[in-house]
């Protein structure tokens, strides 16, 4: 039991800080989605995609994760060589918070995938998409997919030459792809760590966190 408790404590001291970093990265990535071209102009005008404005990286992969990570990290380091602070109650709370992390990260993963698939909101030439004449604000890649089921995957994610259809904000397609892809990777890593910590918390309920037992 003593060896298991030692392993539980060390695992918490690794998982906690990793989740703190990932949660912070998730919040930063989602905030950047709201400021394409490093300007607040498009946010003020309301020309930000609905998927970015849903801020899944803030509430799903960010705040929820940071709250849980703070508790996990505090318990892990406080119990590095203690006598009774690593209680089974703390282990139980850790497991519960990790389940919330798992749910939040899963929501962020799904919504980020939707945002990446739909493509950005941009000012584009509608004539090129056969949806009228002139330029307008809209979702050119999503509109194309409604006309041709395979167009979105083929012309958007797999063909960078079509990215130039978006005239404003400058470089919005690459901005959208990079940041939503980052959110996907971060939330996937958070789900893995949360799953590990759920198991770790369950072991802590049985053996405690303290290495000094």
* Biggest sheet statistics: 3 strands, antiparallel
**Spatial order of strands in the largest sheet:** 2-1-3
Supply the helix-strand structural class: mainly alpha
- Work out the count of structural domains: 1
- Provide a count of the helices: 8
Give the fraction of residues assigned to helices. Answer: 55-70%
Pfam families: L6_membrane
Subcellular location: Membrane
Membrane topology: Multi-pass membrane protein
Main location: membrane
Salient structural properties:
disordered N terminus; transmembrane; 213 residues; disordered C terminus; elongated; 3-stranded antiparallel β-sheet
Give your account of this protein's structure.
Belongs to the L6 tetraspanin family. InterPro entries: L6_membrane. This is Transmembrane 4 L6 family member 1. It is found in: Membrane. A 3-stranded antiparallel sheet has the order 2-1-3, with no helix packed on it. The protein is elongated and about 70 Å long. With 213 residues, the protein is mainly α. Helix content is 69%, strand content 5%. The N and C termini lie close together (9 Å). Helix 5 (88-118) runs antiparallel to helix 8 (172-207). Mean pLDDT is 83; it is low at 1-6 and 209-213. It contains 8 helices and 3 strands; from the N terminus they run H-H-H-H-H-E-E-H-H-E-H. The chain has one domain. It has helices at 2-33, 41-45, 50-53, 56-78, 88-118, 140-147, 151-157, 172-207, and strands at 122-125, 135-138, 166-168.
Summarize this, please?
Helices cover 69% and strands 5% of the residues.
């Amino acid at each position: 039991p003593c060896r298991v408790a030692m392993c539980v404590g060390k695992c918490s001291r690794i998982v906690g800080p990793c989740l703190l970093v990932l949660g912070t990265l998730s919040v930063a990535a989602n905030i950047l989605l709201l400021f394409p071209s490093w300007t607040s102009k498009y946010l003020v005008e309301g020309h930000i995609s609905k998927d970015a404005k849903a801020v899944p990286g803030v509430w799903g992969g960010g705040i929820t994760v940071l709250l849980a990570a703070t508790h996990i990290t505090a318990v892990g380091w406080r119990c590095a060589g203690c006598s009774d602070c690593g209680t089974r109650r703390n282990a139980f709370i850790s497991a519960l918070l990790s389940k919330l992390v798992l749910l939040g990260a899963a929501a962020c993963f799904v919504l980020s995938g939707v945002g990446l698939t739909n493509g950005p909101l941009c000012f584009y030439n509608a004539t090129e998409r056969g949806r009228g004449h002139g330029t307008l604000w809209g979702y050119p890649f999503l509109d194309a997919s409604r006309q041709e089921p395979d167009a979105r995957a083929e012309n958007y994610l797999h063909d960078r030459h079509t990215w130039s259809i978006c005239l404003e904000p400058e470089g919005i397609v690459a901005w959208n792809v990079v940041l939503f892809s980052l959110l996907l990777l971060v939330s996937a890593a958070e789900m893995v760590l949360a799953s590990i910590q759920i198991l770790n918390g369950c072991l802590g309920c049985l053996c405690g966190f303290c290495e000094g037992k």
